[in-house]
Amino acid sequence: MLDPRLLRTNLDEIAKRLQIRSYHLDVDKLRSLESKRKDIQTEVQELQNLRNVRSKNIGQAKAKGEDISQMLAEVDTLGERLRVVEVELAALQEQLHAIYLSIPNVPHESVPAGASEADNLEIRRWGEPKQFPYSPLDHVDLGEQGGWLDFAAAAKITGARFVVMRGKIARMHRALIQFMLDVHTKEHGYQEIYVPYIVNSDSLYGTCQLPKFGEELFALKGEQEYYLIPTAEVPVTNLARDVIFEADQLSIKYVCHTPCFRSEAGSYGKDTRGMIRQHQFEKVELVQLVKPEDSYAAHEQLTRHAESILQKLNLPYRVVILCGGDIGFQSAKTHDIEVWLPGQQRYREISSCSNFEDYQARRLQARWRNPTTGKVELIHTINGSGLAIGRTLVAIMENYQDEQGRIHVPEVLQAYMDGLKIIE
RNA sequence: GGAGAGGUGGCUGAGCGGUUGAAAGCGGCGGUCUUGAAAACCGUUGAGGGGUUUUCCCCCUCCCAGGGUUCGAAUCCCUGCCUCUCCGCCA
After folding, report:
1. Which of A365, A121, A101 minimizes the C-alpha distance to A213?
2. In this predicted structure, what is the pLDDT of residue A123?
3. Could you give all domains of chain A from N- to C-terminal order, each with its CATH number?
4. ipTM of this predicted complex?
5. Strand B: which positions are within 7 A of a protein CB?
6. Among all residues of A, which ones are annotated catalytic?
7. Nucleotide B67 C1' to residue A202 CA (A)
8. pLDDT score for A23
9. pLDDT per residue as tens digits for the range A189-213
């Protein structure tokens, strides 16, 4: 959520900056609602004040043993009038709040304009896509041929967009999780954290999956309103909800492996083949909670941390800045890391690293005590995948295949697989 | 699942329905004292919002959450959530 005070004072400028993501802010409507709000709120507060003063007087008179029936009569109609305007104010504030929740974050000045993926700005490339002397297979063919990936079995057990993995590939999938957690904890200074995979709706509002993106979530049946997490971002970032940090506690760096569950509503017909887009997948997530002044340096650093995994696995990739039309709702700036997939002959997203500035923190009421101002202020939140496990497995299978359909194990993973060099 | 107890400020912990946003203690911050530190003493110390072109002041809201009773609720009544103790069950 954006700062309501800023929306009041700098409305035109915010509207202008939101145009970069092709978002139209109804400035006139907001202005008129705000001025109505101000009038009614003033009236409510004046009436409340009157009530408080009179009630206090009644109390004092009663204590002295005076007759209070006259005073009670005076206060008679006040409550009714107050109730009416209070209801009116609540309705108005709810309306305003709903609008505030529907306004996306203001993009950082370095975010390029653009309508779609095609306008994203490539900022660097690492590694060279390998030239195969034959036509390389994609992971689906490789996986089914080797008996490692079984989409039919998953479809029987559950349905579309699930997978069953077997044998050494299942083992490598597990190894990837251990490997990434080790790198981020030992080399990058993240604290490993284990969290619930089921969350309540407060948490989803906190990180802005609700109310706008509820159709992406799997809700659980039962007495409680519970949801499966779509990403570790939800439970991990919500650790900061309603917390006021001391300056010396920041920055906080968490790394967390969880499964992720996404309904993928609205992506019908997209990536229907293979493991690229599943309802259930594993991810190692990086989350940083930082002081505002540190957030862009931290965002860059976190992106590099995610990249380092691909470098260690020797997988070619590129990094792009998402343009205004492609950037996520709550993000001020997002780097996508895209890995080279020989089976598709193109770069595909394997990590998305975003700086939300104070947009999430405002919803979460995640704050810190700023010693220079002496005030309680919002922190900045940053997160990114480090990396998506399923897609990493796909990238390894496709990049490390040989002509016999075998998969060579990347060197850094061999220690996690009893020294195994080739999966066949 | 059954039976009890409880949720108050950074922490501990008071709080007959009426100057209680909340006693007291601890902690934090500032000061006095000291060569320095400790101790002692003095002062100060919650959050959110609105008004006011505003380092001054005024007002409103918040004592788990949501409803209700009342002129007036931290205090009374309902519902929910959470925590603790005991019993049962269980990976």
Report:
1. A101
2. 96
3. 26-102 (1.10.287.40), 117-423 (3.30.930.10)
4. 0.82
5. 10, 18-19, 46-51, 59-61, 71-72, 81-82
6. 262, 277, 349, 352, 391
7. 20
8. 92
9. 999 999 999 998 888 988 888 888 8
